[in-house]
Amino acid sequence: MNRKGILIVLSGFSGAGKGTLVKALSGKYDNYALSISATTRNPRPGEEDGREYFFKTVEEFKEMIADNALIEYAQYVQNYYGTPKAYVEEKLNEGKDVILEIEIQGALKVKEQFPDTLLLFVTPPNAQTLEERLNGRGTETADVIRDRLSRASEEAQGMEKYDYLVVNDKLEVCVEEMHGIIQSEHFKASRNNEFINTIKKELTRFAR
Q1: Kindly report the CA angle at 114 between 112 and 116, in degrees rounded to 5?
Q2: Taking burial as the number of CB atoms within 10 A of a residue's CB, which of 69, 79, 96, 130 is the most buried?
């Protein structure tokens, strides 16, 4: 069977461990590609174009919008961020499963454009664990943590729109569960129409 990659959108609460999970998954298995976003913000020290981001001018980014060259985009703090369609399609055609880490509104926009997208929502086992993880980072003020927990309460309203929940309790277990979900998706009948039609055609010579 020719195996085309699956577009995976990963969302979840701040502090749920999305970044850690993706890093562990792509470190363990080589069939994953992390989508690289385009942005109009300036590169930070050590960042390279085409590795962390595709760095664009505002004019270049607006051209990409006009050319329908982005799967989704948004503006944060005077900078644009978006997902280039060409890069994602290139990786999918190579047979890579492409992971896109974005928030709920962006995820649903992607699903509209690409109905075959697999939507995964990462959550801790309970709210207390989420609070402990946010506090444990030691990088944010109590006010920021309260804001993040408040936002998590809002984001929870969209969880049922996702295809699968990924409960990140123990990282190693979670990585295996997530890998298992994605691999199972490859064998869905709806993703294998070409194979089904070919074998049906081949079998017609045995028909009585």
Answers
A1: 115
A2: 130
